[in-house]
Amino acid sequence: MSVTLITRVLESALESDLKPIAVVFAYHAHDDGSSLYPSIGRVAWLLGRTGRSISSAVVRLRHLGILVPLAPLTTVNGHLQPRGGRGRSTDYRFVVEALPARLPWEYERAVQAAKQCGKLHPLDITKGGSLRTERVKSARKRVKFAQERVPQTSSQPSEEPSVEPSGKKLPAALRPDEIWNRVLAQLQDALPKHNFLTWVDGARGVALQGPRLVVMAESVKASWVERHYAAELRAALDSVNTELVVQWVEPQAQVAALG
Q1: Please, which residues bridge with residue 74 across strands?
Q2: How far is CA 6 from CA 82, 97, 124, 204, in A?
Q3: Residue 220 in contact with residue 103, Cβ under 8 Å?
Q4: Which of 90, 98, 133, 258 has CB atoms 3.0–4.6 Å from 82's, for a disulfide?
Q5: How far apart are CA 192 and CA 95, in angstroms?
Q6: Are 87 and 136 in a shared domain?
Q7: Residue 118 pLDDT > 70, yes or no?
Q8: Are residues 55 and 174 in the same domain?
């Protein structure tokens, strides 16, 4: 039994219907994710579910890269499946790094308290000392290192650039969402897949005000990107235009920001 793996599963952002199944598999594994071969029948018995529902969940966990079958694969009905048979379990490896990330509980608790009292905006709590933990300090060092190694590149303006009142040139004939999609493409290459899907994917470019690209995203995700991926975001913006800056807005604040 691996208490370490179980804890990582519970603290992850894994979908709620998959989390119990992942916990059971973590329960049967060693800390390194090896020696994992509970049968579908045993997992179904432990959770009080049908074998069909467990099999479906295992397929989803495999697609996420969390469960990696070690047995040879064979083709069944046009799909690759671990070789085995009725009553025979498959040997898996539990890949904890594939679990989707989630904000630490201390941060979530501070966000909830700030929203309830209405005195502090969630984006402002990172300025306080209560959350200045070793994890935050380590992240800042990582961002500083990334800033030093990412070269600043000038974007190539279009033949007929549009000039805003501020005098800064931005790509012509590009909508805000198209500009943001270019930034997203760079971030997708720069960040681990699960981190990108958890913190960046879903944000939308909604307006362009001079050099300011207004991006709509949840405040918690925007704060996390600014704290942990500032260098990668800056490099992605520079790939489009070195003058671009992001202004984050929450969905309910979009109308006010565009007014």
Answers
A1: 81
A2: 24, 13, 32, 34
A3: yes
A4: 90
A5: 14
A6: no
A7: no
A8: no
Instruction: Check if the beta carbon of residue 53 is closer than 8 Å to that of residue 44.
Output: yes
Average pLDDT over residues 81-94: 66
Boundary of a domain, candidates 67, 98, 129: 98
| pLDDT tens track for 41-58 | 999 999 999 999 999 999
- Tell me which residue of 187, 189, 227 sits closest to 203, measured CA to CA: 187
- Enter the pTM of the model: 0.43
Other CB atoms within a 10 A radius of the CB of residue 127 amount to: 9
Looking at this protein, which amino acid is placed at residue 43? Answer: V
Residue 107 identity (one-letter amino acid)? Y
Which has the minimum average pLDDT: 65-69, 106-110, 113-117, 126-130?
126-130
Same structural domain, 86 and 157: no
Residues 184-202 have pLDDT tens digits of 998 988 888 888 888 898 8
User: Which amino acid appears at position 178 of this protein?
Assistant: E
Same domain flag for 150 and 241: yes
